[in-house]
Amino acid sequence: MSSLSVAAPLPTVARQAPKQWGRLTLIGAAWSVFAFFLLLPLVIVLTEALQAGVGTFFSAIFEPDALAALRLTLLAVAISVPLNVLFGVAAAWCVSKYEFRGKSILVTLIDLPFSVSPVIAGLVYVLLFGAQGLFGEWLLEHDIQIIFAVPGIVLATLFVTVPFVARELIPLMQEQGTQEEEAARLLGASGWQMFWHVTVPNIRWGLIYGVVLCTARAMGEFGAVSVVSGHIRGLTNTLPLHVEILYNEYNHVAAFSVASLLLALALVILLLKQWSESRINRLRHSGAEE
Amino acid sequence: MSIRRFAFAALAGALFTTQALAADTLLNVSYDPTRELYQEFNSAFAQHWKAQGKGDVTIQQSHGGSGKQARSVIDGLRADVVTLALAGDIDELHRLGKLIPADWQSRLPDASTPYTSTIVFLVRKGNPKGLKDWGDLVKPGVEVITPNPKTSGGARWNFLAAWAWAKKQYGSDEKAQEYVTQLYKQVPVLDTGARGSTITFVNNRIGDVLLAWENEAFLALKEEGGDALEIVVPSLSILAEPPVAVVDRNVERKGTRELATAYLNHLYSEEGQRIAAKNFYRPRNAKVAAEFAEQFPQLELVTIDGAFNGWKEAQPKFFSDGGVFDQIYQAH
Amino acid sequence: MLRRTSPVIPGFGLTLGYTLCYLSFLVLIPLAALFVKTAELTWEQFVAITTSARVLAALKLSFATAFGAALLNGVIGTLLAWVLVRYRFPGRKLIDALIDLPFALPTAVAGIALTALYAPNGLIGQFASAVGLKIAYSPLGITLALTFVTLPFVVRTLQPVLADIPREVEEAASCLGAKPLQVFRHVLVPALLPAWLTGFALAFARGVGEYGSVIFIAGNMPGKTEILPLLIMVKLDQYDYAGATAIGVLMLVVAFILLLLINLLQRYIRTR
Q1: What pTM was estimated for this model as a whole?
Q2: What's the pLDDT band for C239 if we cut at 50, 70, 90?
Q3: Chains that touch B (3 or more CB pairs under 8 A)
Q4: How do C2-3 and A99-100 pair as beta strands?
Q5: In this structure, which CATH number among 3.30.750.80, 3.40.430.10, 1.10.3720.10, 3.40.50.300 belongs to the domain C43-100+139-271?
Q6: PANTHER family under this entry (chain C) (predicted)?
Q7: Which of B90, B151, B202 to mutate to test the interface with C (most CBs of C within 10 A)?
């Protein structure tokens, strides 16, 4: 499969010298780009957060409104991730195991929330469930509140995270083909047995990878959630919205403190991602060697 | 099975009930610069309510640009009371949402405005550009910070204050439009809300002068310590009247009319007026106003009704699509 | 109509049905609401809204900054992917892990961090303003913010392709007397181009719609630094639902076309 074989160095020394220079320049350039574009923003969040001391930092994080925002963010993650996992597996299954007409369109539709502006994602739910919206009157009569309440925030989060698990699984399952599943079936396994004992172990790491990406986006979504939130302190504020509110309250340090909490979560997510990715690579290599 | 059912019920409960449904919570949807005012007022009111033997009350706050907040309420944000930047935005609650009656403004004293404010200049310490009055703002090289009047209520007061001065100074609408056009040419950042503009001016140090609510300017001065900023009071400004209203349709649904009405009435009480004055809003109550007299500078103030025939005329003329503000921006 | 490659594998109806239902309820029906609302406008009104000076200016700005950011990513993304795949050096693992930071970091956090960096009194902004360059509150600031949030796209699409090109091919070419530039042009460019374009298009599509990171740094001046998603918000807050949805439909169509192109490109890569 993928050939990552390291070629033997070329024998000619004359060619080595300029190559060495080019190599060092490129590595240097990559480091500078990395430091400028990625490290600097990371460092600034931490320094701004800690500029008034550790005490202020922690009191901003453990303030009741911040904790309420954290709870809401985690709730949105806890609901949207499992639903999208279920969807991702089903979608990847039908896209990768079968050929059918309109598949390109289907894949494009799955991807769509990824490149639809988050503002539009929020807007559509306002159009549907707002008091002026299509179902507005009906919801009012039945006293169900969707937007400007938790369900709206969950829906907006679900919308923007739809593609993540499916997007990771589709190429993985396409690559794996259908032989193993077919073999299991021919040996008499039922559909579910085949799924749990053959497919799931095969896609496990890709699934984790998708979950990690999905979690990251669900946690950090701002635009879509902002449209449907109503910004009620302690009730419909997620962590990213809370950052904005603090920022708008002259509370620069608190804003960056909560931001660094989100940054810490992001780094944990990256760590998980790196770990699942290395497992995928290892599996793939061992597969290639067999 | 029972555990699963319990979990499901809990989840459904978390999803479909909001605390706002209970009778002892109140949602006040307000505009940007009132955060500090209502933080203080809410706890004072909660004590007052409890002292009357009415039990505990939780007051929830939502802040944002005035137009955005009005739109959210129209779209279904279940505010018990709205405390917005200008009457024009609350009018929309009647016009678009049928949430309140047309005569809402006559239900409370002083045209439903328990406190007022005005528009002043906030400049860098020492006033390095020598900005004394509206005319100085269009001098070459002066950068003016003000939010977008399309989305911010405060920005609309800014705009009308500038217009009122120019009309008095130069005598005609045409000249006033010329002046305001030049003024907005010197705006480098147009935030969507008053608070955003303050952050741009104070924290990010953009611009030479911020057109601000008087209360916002005082607050910025207080937050920043008075080392880098000072307030300049122009010769003429506008009496900014931020009104309040009970949202009838919502309080009826939630059964909170008594609470909501008491909340707004408390704004007119001596305690409420004093909290407003402490947060740099000009109180209506004569006694409290006398106490805080030296805090608020005297200047000539025009009113929206006197100079512009009220919001019903000013809003479409200046700020609707194709109105004066749009013409100014197309002229750019 | 259906061609099932493998008749023994069950679950086609179940999974396709579930996929379609889920997509319909969560994505398609809500998006349809956008079209329903826009249908209240006549075609003339729709054209008038979407071609008004302010919308066109926002359109131009959103597209130009997203294109600029995607292009910038095309260059630094290629550099990073190349270095990460081809060289072993100190810090390689760290860079590789942190490349995805922009995906994991909430965009609002990115927004306030970049504003703190690039504002005239910020860490970088003060040097820039000393030489008369304005970064925050200008299209340049928007481009840099978009470059940050879309940074991983080009790197992550190029990395696997680059890893799959056997080094022997390049070395064979250079043994045969090809100069490094020739190797680059005739061996690497054709192999990398489709993946590069995919990464570029993904970054572009995401950049056009990005909101959270940009509003803090943009300055939001109508006609100058007002991006399309913000214009939707502004229209909405003026109770102009039809105007907001008209712009929404425009953006949606652009997003759909871009994605279709990306998927076709990827199919081309796979079948090549």
Answers
A1: 0.88
A2: confident
A3: A, C
A4: antiparallel
A5: 1.10.3720.10
A6: SULFATE TRANSPORT SYSTEM PERMEASE PROTEIN (PTHR30406), SULFATE TRANSPORT SYSTEM PERMEASE PROTEIN CYST (PTHR30406:SF8)
A7: B151
